[in-house]
């Protein structure tokens, strides 16, 4: 009878921890499905730029537009695995129909930040995006120095005289040799459910181990 309370606590605690691990495995399957849908949407056939796109209905929507870039650039600090520190090049893009939107052309290395890049006629294939680049550690953009830390669409649109709509280039015709496209993908969308599942299952094993040790100690006590 001395072992029953400890055994019950051990089994109930382990059951709770295992159930949390199973729930995280289920969440992992759900998240992988969501990411697969997003990836399929990103690379789908492009459509014309919608008249009134919104983040709720058109996030990652692939679009194609023709027109020309503006001469003024906004430089957004970024770091990539391949290039290291560099800058996104964001310009105005005026379509053949006269609309002006923001175009994220891609990234250049840090040393090429101020290299001359002329305005040019392009056909752009890319994705609509409403980026969330800012967190509690992100500095404020230094607009006067043209040193941006986050893509603030409203502020950028005001600076360049465009709609607060951003197209992130996936490819251009002709290709831009001075800028490397940095298209949207799902790499920045967190998916930590596998790690959480491993943690809960690991805690369940530890809990059972501690329970077994306590049961052994109780059984060794002299009546």
From TrEMBL:
Which CDD domains does this one have? Answer: SURF1
Q: Please tell me whether the keyword Calcium is annotated for this protein.
A: no
Segments traversing the membrane: 194-216
Which Pfam families does the UniProt entry name for this protein? SURF1 (PF02104)
Q: Does the keyword Signal apply?
A: no
Naming one, the record's GO cellular component terms include: plasma membrane
Q: Where in the cell is it found?
A: Cell membrane; Membrane
Its keywords, alphabetically, are: Cell membrane, Membrane, Transmembrane, Transmembrane helix
Q: List, alphabetically, the PROSITE patterns matched.
A: SURF1
Q: How does it sit in the membrane?
A: Multi-pass membrane protein
Could you say which protein family the record assigns here?
Belongs to the SURF1 family.
- Under what name is this protein listed? SURF1-like protein
What is the phylogenetic placement of the source species in the record? Bacteria, Pseudomonadati, Pseudomonadota, Alphaproteobacteria, Rhodobacterales
